Amino acid sequence: MTSPGKSVMQKRISFPDWETVIDASIDDREQREGMKITIRWYLGWCKANGYVANFESATGFLEVIHKQKQPSERIFEIWKSNLRWFFQSARRQDSVRNTLETTTVSNDWERGLLSLLRQYGKSYRTEQTYLWWSRKFMRFAGKSDPMLCEIEDLESFLSQLSVVEKKSVATQRQALNALVFLYRKLLDKEIPESLKFKRANAKAKLPIVLSRKELETLLGQIEGTQNLMARLQYSAGLRVSELIRLRIKDVDFEQGYVVVRRGKGGKDRKTLLSDSLVGELERHITRLKGLFDKDRSEQLPGVFLPPSVEHKYPGAGIRWEWQWLWPSSKLSVDPRSGLNRRHHVMDRQYGRVLKNAGSLANIPKTITPHVFRHSFATHLLEAGRDIRTVQELLGHADVSTTMIYTHVLNKGGVSVTSPLDDL
To answer: What is the pLDDT, as a whole number, of residue 8?
Structure first.
């Protein structure tokens, strides 16, 4: 055996939380304990012989135990696989640490805000949005500590968004939500029910809706899995975030519906599953089983789960029914846990496909994923469906939001002809 020399000290692998990662990513208890035994064995051998943990010492360790224990080929492959997992995961963790050094929070109040956002179960995107608005507000206020900020600072900032920056109602509301969280949860400051700031002007903007012929033409320019995604989104009236976050268990073929979990406002709801998509969706899910089996054989960490689910159902992330309906073809690093795992496809990638399809179809409208949701609602109302039913399917909290679609119905929704037609 080639002795691991001191010349490789600078290549030492540091992975102090390897047991925590195993507990979080490996559901099978016997496999989990076996991995821990092998890695502890190796690290103990390194310590006893004055070696550092690296690829060279691991090779030497395997040579020694093979001679001493003379294990079967199957057992020896398990040992090698366990050490391979250790080094691969250590490399991923190191990569994550290097990335976070440039992107993580930089002071105590940001760390406190991030901690609170996670305690309240906010999504990763909400974390980043709230942190971004809080930083922008602090730059505007010109103060280093948010405890020094007053309600007047908040009101001035919100007015600036409207008067100077000409932000939309939705953008101003997003900033308000972020800063209300900052004031109430982090600073423990009361906010008056009626803040005094210049509100952004609400602009009457009709949703973009495709005719049935335009939909057919557009779908004809989309291929493969994205075509199935687009048809499901239209048939169920889903937001793009709801579409890409669907899991295997959210499609109920027996009852004939799709379940949207933790939609806007954190609410669950049921919506339509088109009979025409059942066979293709079943074949799609069958194909995904092969990818799932491959991930399990490689002992990859399970898919992301909301903290409340992960606490209630430990190990659910590696169970079949919790897998993404639209998984990414590539692995990516989870920015919260640092685990290299399979995520769902990104909305931007899907959006680009639709935009390109709109250009190829020569449709003179701005094509985004949301046009499918707008078209779903409008076409249901055109077909005479009750507006309250459409409201429930869309997940709108108030029927007034759904009413916007009555303004884009054919002929304005009333039996009136243009006076030009009477000439």
So the answer is: 37
